[in-house]
Amino acid sequence: MKKEILNREDIGRALSRMAYEIVERNKGTRDLCIVGIHRGGVHLARRLSERIADIEGTQPPAASLDISFYRDDINMRKGRPAVHTTDIPFDINDKRIILVDDVIFTGRTIRAALDALMDFGRPAQIQLAVLIDRGHRELPIRADYAGKNVPTARTDAVKVFLVEEGGDDSVALIKEDAK
User: Fold this and answer.
1) First to last CA, the chain
2) Strand 170-174 and strand 157-161: pairing?
3) Residue 76: which pLDDT band, with cuts at 50, 70 and 90?
4) Cα 155 versus chain centre, distance
5) pTM of the predicted structure, to 2 decimals
6) What's 87's DSSP letter?
7) pLDDT computed for residue 41 by the predictor
């Protein structure tokens, strides 16, 4: 069974709310940088940066982070990892970083992203923003900003489709019997 849990308008509203929460918690955009985890997190980071600019009149810089070689399951995966470009064109030292991903599940992707990010410097703070929090953590990691919390079974899948990747903006929950 495949069920749409967010449509284009829902995603837009969730990102707008998250942008307001980020601005409020950080008291503006001073020393604020947005870093998206490849793939979907990069597109969402850019969108958050633009929405924050609409709110504050100042756009925090956005960057992309590849975590392919930081994953703890790299030796268990079949084939070679899909490697993307890391593009962090600013100094992250003493900055407040908003790390962005599309879905948080076990927390292992975020742990890998934290390791990768630390190779670029020492931020003053790292906060986590995700579009979907589906639970089932294996590590003590939680999102500071979540577009939607979605209860799932461990065997379910959550798929995020974005226009930047050739689809329509939506999020679907795929139940195990429909895989």
Assistant:
1) 8
2) antiparallel
3) low
4) 21
5) 0.93
6) B
7) 97
Query: pLDDT digit string (tens) for 1-33?
Result: 899 999 999 999 999 999 999 999 999 999 999
Residue 29, phi then psi, degrees to nearest 5: -120, 5
* Residue from 59, 43, 15, 16 nearest 161 by CA: 43
Token pair 């985890």 in the structure block, residue: 37
Place of tokens 């579009």: 131
Q: Is a pLDDT exceeding 60 seen at residue 143?
A: yes
Q: Token pair of 54, please?
A: 């609409």
Cα distance between residue 112 and residue 163, in whole Å: 26
Q: What is the pLDDT of residue 84?
A: 83
Rounded Cα gap, residues 80 and 147, in angstroms:
32
Backbone angles phi, psi at 170, to 5 degrees: -170, 165
The confidence score (pLDDT) of residue 79 equals: 65
Q: Inter-axis angle of helices 40-56 and 8-26, to 10 degrees?
A: 60
CA torsion 85→93→62→105, rounded to 10°? Answer: 70
Q: Which domains does the chain have, with CATH numbers?
A: 8-73+83-153 (3.40.50.2020)
List the structure tokens of 146.
């979540």
Q: How confident is the model at residue 72 (pLDDT cuts 50, 70, 90)?
A: confident
Which DSSP string do the residues of 150-173 spell out, in sequence order? Answer: ----TT-EEEEE-GGGTS-SEEEE
Amino acid at position 24, single letter: E
